[in-house]
Amino acid sequence: MGFRFRKRLKLFPGFWLNFSKSGVSASAGVPGLTWNSRGRVTAGIPGTGISYVEEIGSKPKSVRERRQAQSPRIPSTIASRYFAAFMRLQANQRGKSRGMSSVKV
Q: Is residue 57 very low, low, confident or very high in pLDDT (cuts 50, 70, 90)?
Protein backbone atom coordinates (compact mmCIF):
# COMPACT_ATOMS: atom_id res chain seq x y z
CA MET A 1 0.00 0.00 0.00
CA GLY A 2 1.38 3.41 -0.92
CA PHE A 3 1.20 6.83 0.64
CA ARG A 4 -1.17 9.47 -0.71
CA PHE A 5 -0.86 13.24 -0.56
CA ARG A 6 -3.79 15.59 -1.17
CA LYS A 7 -4.40 19.19 -0.22
CA ARG A 8 -7.27 21.37 -1.36
CA LEU A 9 -7.05 25.16 -1.24
CA LYS A 10 -10.28 27.15 -1.58
CA LEU A 11 -9.63 30.27 -3.67
CA PHE A 12 -13.20 31.58 -3.55
CA PRO A 13 -16.66 29.99 -3.27
CA GLY A 14 -17.01 27.27 -5.89
CA PHE A 15 -13.34 27.23 -7.01
CA TRP A 16 -10.42 25.20 -5.57
CA LEU A 17 -6.80 24.38 -6.33
CA ASN A 18 -5.93 20.75 -5.67
CA PHE A 19 -2.39 19.65 -4.83
CA SER A 20 -1.42 15.98 -4.95
CA LYS A 21 1.58 13.76 -5.47
CA SER A 22 0.87 13.72 -9.22
CA GLY A 23 0.55 17.50 -9.63
CA VAL A 24 -1.80 20.45 -9.41
CA SER A 25 -5.34 20.70 -10.76
CA ALA A 26 -8.29 23.06 -10.46
CA SER A 27 -11.88 22.24 -9.52
CA ALA A 28 -15.09 24.20 -9.80
CA GLY A 29 -18.57 23.36 -8.72
CA VAL A 30 -21.51 23.59 -6.42
CA PRO A 31 -22.48 21.29 -3.53
CA GLY A 32 -23.19 17.91 -5.10
CA LEU A 33 -21.52 18.51 -8.49
CA THR A 34 -17.84 19.25 -9.19
CA TRP A 35 -15.78 19.51 -12.41
CA ASN A 36 -12.00 18.95 -12.36
CA SER A 37 -9.45 20.32 -14.85
CA ARG A 38 -8.08 16.80 -15.37
CA GLY A 39 -11.37 15.58 -16.83
CA ARG A 40 -13.15 14.24 -13.76
CA VAL A 41 -16.77 14.99 -12.86
CA THR A 42 -18.05 14.08 -9.40
CA ALA A 43 -21.72 13.97 -8.44
CA GLY A 44 -22.74 13.24 -4.88
CA ILE A 45 -25.24 13.66 -2.12
CA PRO A 46 -23.83 16.31 0.26
CA GLY A 47 -23.28 15.16 3.84
CA THR A 48 -23.62 11.43 3.12
CA GLY A 49 -20.23 10.50 1.69
CA ILE A 50 -21.97 8.91 -1.30
CA SER A 51 -20.65 10.04 -4.67
CA TYR A 52 -20.14 8.93 -8.26
CA VAL A 53 -17.01 9.81 -10.25
CA GLU A 54 -16.78 9.78 -14.04
CA GLU A 55 -13.66 10.32 -16.13
CA ILE A 56 -14.45 12.53 -19.13
CA GLY A 57 -12.35 12.12 -22.28
CA SER A 58 -9.76 9.47 -23.04
CA LYS A 59 -7.03 10.46 -20.60
CA PRO A 60 -5.12 7.44 -19.24
CA LYS A 61 -5.51 6.99 -15.50
CA SER A 62 -2.06 5.74 -14.55
CA VAL A 63 1.57 5.93 -15.61
CA ARG A 64 1.33 2.32 -16.82
CA GLU A 65 -1.65 3.12 -19.04
CA ARG A 66 0.12 6.19 -20.45
CA ARG A 67 3.16 4.07 -21.33
CA GLN A 68 0.98 1.39 -22.91
CA ALA A 69 -0.85 4.02 -24.95
CA GLN A 70 2.47 5.40 -26.26
CA SER A 71 4.18 2.07 -26.96
CA PRO A 72 3.49 0.10 -30.15
CA ARG A 73 1.65 -3.20 -29.89
CA ILE A 74 4.62 -5.24 -31.17
CA PRO A 75 4.52 -7.93 -28.45
CA SER A 76 0.89 -8.78 -29.14
CA THR A 77 1.61 -8.90 -32.90
CA ILE A 78 4.48 -11.33 -32.33
CA ALA A 79 2.31 -13.39 -30.00
CA SER A 80 -0.44 -13.59 -32.59
CA ARG A 81 2.04 -14.78 -35.23
CA TYR A 82 3.31 -17.51 -32.91
CA PHE A 83 -0.27 -18.47 -32.09
CA ALA A 84 -1.16 -18.69 -35.81
CA ALA A 85 1.93 -20.82 -36.49
CA PHE A 86 1.04 -23.07 -33.55
CA MET A 87 -2.51 -23.53 -34.86
CA ARG A 88 -1.21 -24.42 -38.34
CA LEU A 89 1.15 -26.96 -36.79
CA GLN A 90 -1.71 -28.48 -34.78
CA ALA A 91 -3.89 -28.69 -37.90
CA ASN A 92 -1.07 -30.37 -39.84
CA GLN A 93 -0.55 -32.92 -37.07
CA ARG A 94 -4.27 -33.69 -36.94
CA GLY A 95 -4.30 -34.13 -40.71
CA LYS A 96 -1.38 -36.57 -40.62
CA SER A 97 -3.02 -38.64 -37.90
CA ARG A 98 -6.10 -38.97 -40.12
CA GLY A 99 -4.04 -40.19 -43.04
CA MET A 100 -3.88 -36.89 -44.93
CA SER A 101 -0.52 -35.71 -46.19
CA SER A 102 -0.99 -31.99 -45.40
CA VAL A 103 -3.75 -29.60 -44.51
CA LYS A 104 -3.72 -25.92 -45.40
CA VAL A 105 -5.33 -23.51 -42.97
A: confident
> In terms of Cα–Cα distance, which of 24, 29, 31, 26 is closest to 45?
31
pLDDT at 63 over 90: no
Distance CA 35, CA 66 (A): 22
Closest CA to 19 of 28, 7, 10, 27: 7
Regarding pTM above 0.70, the answer is no
Q: Where are the domains of the chain?
A: 1-60, 72-105
Residue 74 pLDDT: 52
